[in-house]
Automatic annotation (TrEMBL):
<dbReference type="InterPro" id="IPR036058">
    <property type="entry name" value="Kazal_dom_sf"/>
</dbReference>
<feature type="domain" description="Kazal-like">
    <location>
        <begin position="21"/>
        <end position="71"/>
    </location>
</feature>
<dbReference type="Pfam" id="PF00050">
    <property type="entry name" value="Kazal_1"/>
</dbReference>
<keyword id="KW-1015">Disulfide bond</keyword>
<feature type="domain" description="Kazal-like">
    <location>
        <begin position="177"/>
        <end position="231"/>
    </location>
</feature>
<feature type="domain" description="Kazal-like">
    <location>
        <begin position="337"/>
        <end position="384"/>
    </location>
</feature>
<dbReference type="GO" id="GO:0005576">
    <property type="term" value="C:extracellular region"/>
</dbReference>
<feature type="domain" description="Kazal-like">
    <location>
        <begin position="385"/>
        <end position="437"/>
    </location>
</feature>
<dbReference type="GO" id="GO:0030154">
    <property type="term" value="P:cell differentiation"/>
</dbReference>
<feature type="domain" description="Kazal-like">
    <location>
        <begin position="232"/>
        <end position="284"/>
    </location>
</feature>
<protein>
    <recommendedName>
        <fullName>Kazal-like domain-containing protein</fullName>
    </recommendedName>
</protein>
<dbReference type="InterPro" id="IPR050653">
    <property type="entry name" value="Prot_Inhib_GrowthFact_Antg"/>
</dbReference>
<feature type="domain" description="Kazal-like">
    <location>
        <begin position="285"/>
        <end position="336"/>
    </location>
</feature>
<dbReference type="InterPro" id="IPR002350">
    <property type="entry name" value="Kazal_dom"/>
</dbReference>
<dbReference type="Pfam" id="PF07648">
    <property type="entry name" value="Kazal_2"/>
</dbReference>
<feature type="domain" description="Kazal-like">
    <location>
        <begin position="73"/>
        <end position="125"/>
    </location>
</feature>
Amino acid sequence: MKKKTCGKGKLRTSDAGLCMRSAGSRCEHRCGKDRDPVCGTDGRTYLNRCMLQVEICRVGIQMSHLGPCNNISAHRENCPVSCEQAPIDGPICGSDGNVYKNTCQMKLLTCGQGVVRTSKKYCQTTRHCRESCWRVAKPTCGSDGKIYSNACRMKSKNCGKHVFEVPMSFCVSHERNANGNGCPLNCEGEDESLTCGSDGNVYRNECELKMLNCGAQSSKRRVQPVDFEKCRTKLNKCNKLQKCFKEVDPVCGTDSHTYINKCQLQIATCLKGIQLAHVGNCTALEENDFCPNSCPEDEDAPVCGSDGNVYRSLCEMRKETCGQKVVAVPSHHCRTTAQCNEVCGTERQFICGSDNKFYRNECEMKRDNCGKHIFVVPMKRCLTGFMFRGCQKICENYYDPICGTDGKTYSNDCFLDLENCRSRSLVSKKHHGQCGQPVTEAKNYLY
């Protein structure tokens, strides 16, 4: 162990359970045949995450990214010049977590990054695209100013778009013959005066009750203010729910109120059933977005949007999402910007990135390529340009034991080849697995 991890500061642990193999696992997970391909750090595509988990347990590799491996070198990837005549086969969820209008746009915007198509369930604005909605009649007002039969129908009909639930008063004020009087769009400037509603929920003031009642035609559906003692038990229960820290990571509720963090929103959910509309600050619903027609080509400051997509700049985000009320949110909410501000350790676990460059560890690779889809690939991709003399071969640090004809167990076939070179072809492969414990060679990957 000391020989293999020289200079890495690795120590022996007293907890044997930290290693799957030493815990007695035979790495024999029962996997279904669902087709949801994922790419491993060994450069192989696995049918689904369960089959990759078998290899993670058996060999010690990791998941590189969602979707099949794209083993074409970044420098040799064919990229389209224009997408004007391209078929509209989208929206498409990319392995970088972004949603694209079609395959051509995905290849054009991510040229050289090896982004591939993945299941729609992995992207924020496409995960509800094929959802089967129950026939529940709970009218919902969308941020596009339209009324939907329920929230599920609203999301499925706006596949690939950032449309979220807002107070009904916003949609009622858009209707031609509707009387918008008495229907406030928000209650931000109102004083806090806790009000108990006849539905058993606790509201911040009577303004919130008016927002709730907006659009309710019959008096039976209207919520009236009642004696607060009827809500006292609920208020005490929700206040005891959890102590919220003052960490600032704003989220927008379906009442168009910005909560300081998700914890504060959970209390509002308990008190009055408010749900998450989207991450980030709420926008003024009546204001028209400023939509630029073009953006500077040299501007490159990746922005994470509340729709889950990463944009080249703030200008690019406003241009691409015109009218969808997308706001900039902290970088950790998007896949390719999650580690932009990460403080990386100094440990040396050299890896090869999909840009064919060496990095000290995975954290540094993600941090140095903020906003780009760079992932771990087999070490041989980076070693292609190096020339080794004699038997000075560099082997990857994964454990897939091979028993040699000399009776010794080698970590993987690369180390066996190294010994074979040094001994001048005296040692060859006896069987797969540790000496004395032969196993059938596993093959859980597609290609």
